[in-house]
């Protein structure tokens, strides 16, 4: 469970101040599927990065399972980022000189890759339908395929939490639906908590949570968003 308490983030650039988040309070229950919507510049990525401990808040707190991320030791923070969270970004962030298997294994390279781990990377790539693309490099893959490599990479560590920042932003709608299909499956099969920034509300289904940001604040109240139910 993630608890976000009166979170603010101000970016400073020379003389100018940008108040990217202006007091956001909400909770994201364990095992939920949450969408973050909002116009460009409303603070969506900033909020996601703070949840992933990729950045520090200006004030307020993000607590995960009762631990304030800003108060973790450098080591615990690193462990959280590396072990607990799977990140999926809009631009895939793949390394062009590595094939699909290599790109899945990248986060683990500093510690060394065991044959077991390589095998698991291959299994994950098969799971996302890329069993016949294992030795392809990013420029030999379609956008959707590259994003699926990035998803396999995020899943290698069995993360409790997946944070996805416009994972379908660069994809056509068919491939986008495919990518959401994988995120959804992960959520259903492994009860992974998924938080996804998106511009597209077509992928929202029954029981999902929706947070709407505008000018760094939540539009739909402080209670933690609304659950959408089709009726
Ligand atoms: N490192 C930074 N330095 C200065 N300003 C920043 C920085 N990062 C973000 N901002 C500003 O903070 C505001 C919120 O940015 P953020 O990236 O969170 O928006 P967003 O909702 O993700 O937008 P988009 O949909 O375009 O990705 C924007 O006005 C942006 O220009
Ligand atoms: Mg963004």
Count of individual beta strands:
11
What sequence of helices (H) and strands (E) makes up the elements?
EEEHEEHEHHHEHEEEE
**CATH hierarchy, class:** Alpha Beta
Q: Please indicate the count of domains.
A: 1
User: Shape, please?
Assistant: globular
Q: Supply the helix-strand structural class.
A: alpha/beta
Largest sheet: 7 strands, mixed
What is the typical, i.e. mean, pLDDT? Answer: 90
Q: Indicate the multimeric state.
A: single chain
Strand content: 25-35%
In CATH terms, the superfamily is P-loop containing nucleotide triphosphate hydrolases
Bound molecules: adenosine-5'-triphosphate, magnesium ion
CATH topology: Rossmann fold
Q: Compute the CA-based radius of gyration.
A: 18 Å
What gap, in angstroms, lies between the N and C termini? Answer: 28 Å
Helix content: 25-40%
Q: Please state the second-level CATH architecture.
A: 3-Layer(aba) Sandwich
DSSP helix count?
6
- Any low-confidence stretches, pLDDT <50, length ≥5? none
Write structural notes for this entry.
- The protein is α/β, with parallel strands linked by helices and 231 residues long.
- The protein has one domain (2-227): P-loop containing nucleotide triphosphate hydrolases (Rossmann fold).
- 30% of the residues lie in helices and 27% in strands.
- The chain is built from 6 helices and 11 strands.
- The protein has helices spanning 44-51, 74-84, 100-105, 115-127, 143-155, 173-190; strands at residues 2-13, 16-28, 33-37, 59-64, 67-68, 85-88, 161-165, 193-197, 209-214, 217-218, 226-227.
- Strands 3, 6, 7, 8, 9, 10 and 11 form a 7-stranded mixed beta sheet that branches. Strands 2-1-4-5 form a 4-stranded antiparallel beta sheet.
- Strand 9 and strand 10 (217-218) form a beta hairpin.
- Helix 5 runs parallel beside helix 6 (173-190).
- The longest helix is centred in the last third of the chain and has 18 residues, at 173-190.
- The model has no long low-confidence stretch (mean pLDDT 90).
- Adenosine-5'-triphosphate is lined by residues 11, 13, 18, 20, 38, 40-46.
- Magnesium ion is lined by residues 44-45, 165.
């Amino acid at each position: 469970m993630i608890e976000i308490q009166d979170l603010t983030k101000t970016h400073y650039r020379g003389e100018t101040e940008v108040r990217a988040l202006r007091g956001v309070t909400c909770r994201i229950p364990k095992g939920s599927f949450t969408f973050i919507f909002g116009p460009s510049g409303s603070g969506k990525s900033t909020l996601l990065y703070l949840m992933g401990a990729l950045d520090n808040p200006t004030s307020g707190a993000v607590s995960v399972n009762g631990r304030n991320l800003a108060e973790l030791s450098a080591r615990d923070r690193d462990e959280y980022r590396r072990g607990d969270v799977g990140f999926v970004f809009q631009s895939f962030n793949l390394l062009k000189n590595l094939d699909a298997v290599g790109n899945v294994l990248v986060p683990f390279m500093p510690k060394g890759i065991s044959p077991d781990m390589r095998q698991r990377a291959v299994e994950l790539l098969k799971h996302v339908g890329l069993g016949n693309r294992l030795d392809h490099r990013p420029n030999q893959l379609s956008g959707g395929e590259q994003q699926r490599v990035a998803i396999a990479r995020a899943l290698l560590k069995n993360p409790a939490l997946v944070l996805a920042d416009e994972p379908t932003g660069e994809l056509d709608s068919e491939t986008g639906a495919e990518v959401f299909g994988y995120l959804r499956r992960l959520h259903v099969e492994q009860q992974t908590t998924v938080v996804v920034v998106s511009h597209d509300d077509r992928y929202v289904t029954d029981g999902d949570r929706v947070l709407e940001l505008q000018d760094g604040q939540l539009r739909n109240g402080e209670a933690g968003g609304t659950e959408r139910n089709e009726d």
